[in-house]
Amino acid sequence: MNAAPPGARLGLLPSLLRTCVRQAHTAPARRPAPKGYPKPEGHGENIWVFTHRRTEQVIFSFKDRLDGFHDLKQLPFNGKQTKPSKLRKDYWSPMAKIQFPAGMGSVGRSVFQKLRELKHLHEVSWPDEFRYKAPSEYTQEDERKIADEKEKGKVYQPIRTKADRGNALNAQKKNVIADMAVVLAGKGAGNKLAVAESASKGAGNKLAVAESKEAASGDELVAVTVKWSNDQDMGFAEAWSSNVTHALFEEPAYMSNLVPKQQVAEVPTEEVKVEA
């Protein structure tokens, strides 16, 4: 097949340029790119705190159900067999639920971020005393060795093994409850729980949230309700601020997946006659 001479191909260049310009002018205008994924209504107004029944690991979530993919990423790897491969429903249950007023989702998202950052800080930064066992972890052999060293005039402190340190790092339940009391008190840089007193007296429910390092004396705090599955857990914090109201779950956590009581047919009870 004979190829076209170079001059003939160069002659097609002007028509090709006109075609490209015509298509550029007649093509439909592109739609503007969306600014972002729209947040669902009420996003951030409720924070669910889930805990593991045995290891006391903690997961924060905006939903009342755990996501086996995204929520699993909150659990760090602290050693062999310290991070589960999946989230089992029989091990995880809600420990607490933090509720914010309607329209204060931005405050809830700020608290969510701070709680996760503090939890991560506990998991990656610990003092030297963390290497030693707590008195509740002593075995009979440890107690015997402590007594023997005490007779010799020495002090012996049992050291945690690698597996023990991993299990101790997983148990963040007590630390998380203490962090909740501090964050909900309006402390910390950029905490949005502090509301200026002048803004709280404005019209309607429009509250101007002030980002301050600490809750000033003239500022108010957003009212928060914390519901517990066990009200004894709140005792792990030294003190709670006055803006926090405590309550219990209306139904136990282990009954959340069962059929509501209204749908259960009542079985008539028969009277039992006792013979004399």
Care to describe what's here?
- By secondary structure, the protein is α+β, with helices and mostly antiparallel strands.
- Helices cover 28% and strands 13% of the residues.
- It is built from seven helices and seven strands, in the order ααβββααααβαβββ.
- It has a five-stranded mixed sheet with strand order 2-1-3-6-7.
- A hairpin with a 5-residue loop joins β1 (46-52) and β2 (58-61).
- α3 (105-124) crosses α6.
- It is elongated and about 105 Å long.
- It starts with 5 loop residues before the first helix and ends in a 28-residue tail after the last strand.
- The model is unreliable at 196-214 and 254-276 (pLDDT under 50).
Helix/strand layout:
Elements: H1 6-11, H2 13-26, E1 46-52, E2 58-61, E3 92-99, H3 105-124, H4 140-151, H5 162-170, H6 173-183, E4 194-196, H7 197-200, E5 219-221, E6 224-228, E7 244-248
Parallel strand pairs: 6-7
Antiparallel strand pairs: 1-2, 1-3, 3-6, 4-5
Helix pairs in contact: 3-6
Question: Keywords for this structure?
Answer:
276 residues; alpha+beta; two-stranded antiparallel ribbon; 7 helices; elongated; disordered C terminus; DNA strand exchange activity
